[in-house]
Amino acid sequence: MSVIAIDLGHRFGRVARFGPDGGPAVTTAELTVDGVLDPVRVLPRLLGSAPAAGDVPATGPDRTAVLGRPVSDGREDELRYVVERAGLDVARVVPDPVAVALHYQAIAEGVDHTVLVCDQGATRLDLSVLAIAPDLTVHLVRTRSLRLGGDDWDAALAADLAGRLPDGVDAMSAAESLRRALGGSDRATEFFDDATGVRHEVALERSDFERAVAPLREQFLVGVAEQLTIAETAVDTVLLAGGMCAAPERRAEIEALPAAQGLTVRCDRPELAVVLGLLTLHDFGVLRVVTGPAVRSGPGFAGLDTGYPRVAVDPLLDPEPAGAAATDPEPGAGCPRVEDPEPAARQGSSSTGTDAGRARQTTAGRHDGAFEAPESEADRGSSAAPPSTDPPPPTPPSTDLPHPEATYSHPQSAEPPYTPPSYTDAPSTPSPEFPATPPTGSPLDPQAVFAVPVDQLQTLRRGDHLLVLWAWPAGALSARVRWRREGSVAGAGPERGDDVCRRRVYEHDGGFDLAVGRGAATVTVEALVAELGDGCEGASSLLVPAAPTVVAYEPSVRRRFTGRAASVTFTSETGCDLPEVRIVHSLGRFRPTSMAEGNVLHEVPAQRLAAGTPLTVEFPLPATRGPSWLVCFPADADADTDSGIDIRPTALHRLRVT
Predict the structure, then answer these.
(1) How far apart are CA 172 and CA 110, in angstroms?
(2) Which CATH superfamily does the domain covering 439-547 fall into?
(3) pLDDT-based confidence at residue 80 (cuts at 50, 70, 90)
(4) Contact 479, 470 (CB under 8 A)
(5) Does the predicted model carry a pTM greater than 0.70?
(6) Alpha helix locations (H) across 198-336?
(7) What does the pLDDT look like over 405-439, one tens digit per residue?
(8) Would you call 630 helix, strand, or coil by DSSP?
(9) CATH number of this structure's domain 4-97
(10) What is the side-by-side order of every strand in the sheet holding 12-18?
């Protein structure tokens, strides 16, 4: 399948797809109007200028598009609407910082770290903190947006060039040309025609440029350092994106910050980071993008109704009108949101008595760009929750979008208004027993159904929850999911559950979420189809082993009169028997992956580790030159597997002790 990736920015638009040689083919166009605020006028021209994406077939998989969404101004419903009008099927919309993380391969199964994405384009600097979980869940923790882009650099340089430019030359255009020509050199020269057509030579020295933009550079570095300092979970990697971050000195400036010492700063084709990251989305079928709770508007926050956490704006750099702040219209704004991977509207699955079902009804049904049909009292039943207070469906997107930065008007579109689809799935009801097949007339489906096994049944653990995944049989629009605990745990909640999963909700959430605790459980899934066909009735079952007990450790180094002393602190949320552990010291740029790659400095004997009580061991650390690491390994390579103990660092970058 050939996927078309579309990245609409304020000043530049990019379209990419895989070429005949298997590599990405990217087309970049400078926009005459704001692409984020007026995609209706921009997108058709952008697609027409891209040879790889210009000829879109009427049907087939080559019509699939993935979209990037700016965290500060982008509106998902409008992006979907415009792209679908252009004849493409929208497979998914993801925030730009997530696409950047995909470009740098920072998202992978089993990876658990926190990154800061610095995206500086023509108009804004977006600083986004992403928490990446091992189960391919990306949490958009926080985004701060500053009006500190390339246009501000050009304005500062244009003010410095006042009096040196010929009459009739646009100062902003001249400043942009000189800035780009300067690049990493010490001097740049450009030629400009005055009002009479006479050509003049204008030179720009590196020292003059640095003096003109010094205050802006300082504000950029202060913003980055602030995000690195206030992050609840320590950031271990900084990812650069946007045309302004392509400057040769940008990476070195961040690496020199005290708050960035020991961190990894990555810069690889930053101007194409978003669109290249979008092309890799097809490799992440279960990628989940979750946003944190919305921040209430107040002083220092812009009232951006984007569906993401409110974006903090520096009031000195980005003053907003007095009426810009807005309160959160959703009563459930404190709940996390999950990005919708499909353009269709979703209706949250009603619970059948489990906590997971109630959570999905609260969160999965509320997502960006979703349109939900009203539910009648008869549909809800006597045991349903109070009527929803969600805001009404959004009005059709308009091409006349006011924005404080816009200096042009947007004509009204002559197209008919967009009418979103609606769905009226009947809610499911709990079943106290586990019959082989649902009875005729059951609220599981409006007609008699057959229960058939599913394929590729698997689960991914996320703390006390399981993400259940399977391949849907042809014609199945819903499935029945049952689970039971293996072994009783005091105070662990219900021992079994029975729920119904709608296919639309499953595809929206990237799987089916079950709150089953950390113990072993048996999960049974059967798809519901109207016609049995050549298959047979039955169900697929999977025994999920108990989650291992996590023992986190963190090394530290202190200097003493007799030399350096190292300490390692072990903690666990639950009590466990810690196996014998060896602390290995290794030299070099790369973290050791086994005891053979370093020297054993200390052995921690097997002992009981109380819940929440830290265990700290100290030992001398030899004097070394260059980077070195302290990593803990079980003395017996199979000890952590056999004992159900997972020994892992609190953060990978903290293992580097020099």
Answers:
(1) 47
(2) Immunoglobulins (2.60.40.10)
(3) confident
(4) yes
(5) no
(6) 206-230, 248-255, 273-279
(7) 333 333 333 334 434 333 333 333 333 333 444 44
(8) strand
(9) 3.30.420.40
(10) 24-30, 12-18, 4-8, 64-69, 89-95
